[in-house]
Every structure is written in structure tokens, then in C-alpha cells.
Design a protein that fits this description.
single chain; 120 residues; alpha+beta; globular
């Protein structure tokens, strides 16, 4: 069982490195990095040129703790992130799925941000 989990994580890290070779965020179009675990979800908007996180949202924040780590919760978190980005006048981002497959929670976060008006 443990060997299977280690192999799954190794494959995700390999995909992540492959993606990050090509995806980079700038001040004009920052990188939207998503992360998920069994209990929580988080999204960060990163300017890779300066190495700064511009905006973040996580289900671990006090006002967002009611959001569950399921597809509906991921869509809600994406919408919250979209609203925060629009407040900072960021309308376009580069999507970094962080090695996760683009379905389920990751797709729901992306669709929620698109619904809020973010382009990628």
C-alpha cells in the first residue's frame, strides 16, 4: 500500500516538474497554482519574476472554513479567488495545475475562477 502511494506521488512530482519548465508567471500574467489535499484546497497567484505571492485563498482561512474539499467547494473557492483577483485588477493568469490531473477538484477550481471573470 505504501509503495503504491509513493509511486503515485512520484508520478505527480514528475508531471509538476515537466509543467513548470514551460509555465511561468509575470507581473502582467501571474501564475495561478492550485493545491489540494484530502482536507483542504488552496490557490495562490504568484509573480515568478519577483518571487512573490500576490493573492491567495485557502479553505484553512477563517472565513472560508465552511467550504468543503469537494467539487462544489472547489468551485466556490475558485469564485472567491476570482473576486480577489478582480479587486487587485488582475484579469488574466497562467494556470498551473501543479501536477494534478485536470479533472474533478482542479477543473472545478479553474471553472469557478473563469465564472468570476478571470481569463486563462
Amino acid at each position: 500500500m505504501l509503495r503504491k502511494m509513493v509511486e503515485k506521488d512520484r508520478k505527480r512530482i514528475k508531471r509538476k516538474v515537466h509543467i513548470r519548465k514551460r509555465v511561468a508567471g509575470t507581473a502582467d500574467r501571474p501564475r495561478m497554482s492550485v493545491s489540494r489535499s484530502n482536507r483542504s484546497l488552496s490557490i495562490q497567484i504568484i509573480d515568478d519574476v519577483k518571487g512573490h505571492t500576490l493573492v491567495s485563498a485557502s479553505t484553512l482561512e477563517k472565513e472560508l472554513r465552511s467550504i468543503k474539499a469537494n467539487v462544489e467547494g472547489a468551485a466556490q473557492l475558485g469564485e472567491v479567488m476570482g473576486k480577489r483577483l478582480l479587486e487587485k485588477n488582475i484579469k488574466a493568469v497562467v494556470f498551473d495545475r501543479n501536477g494534478y490531473l485536470y479533472h474533478g477538484l482542479v477543473k472545478a477550481m479553474a471553472d469557478g475562477a473563469r465564472k468570476a471573470g478571470i481569463e486563462f
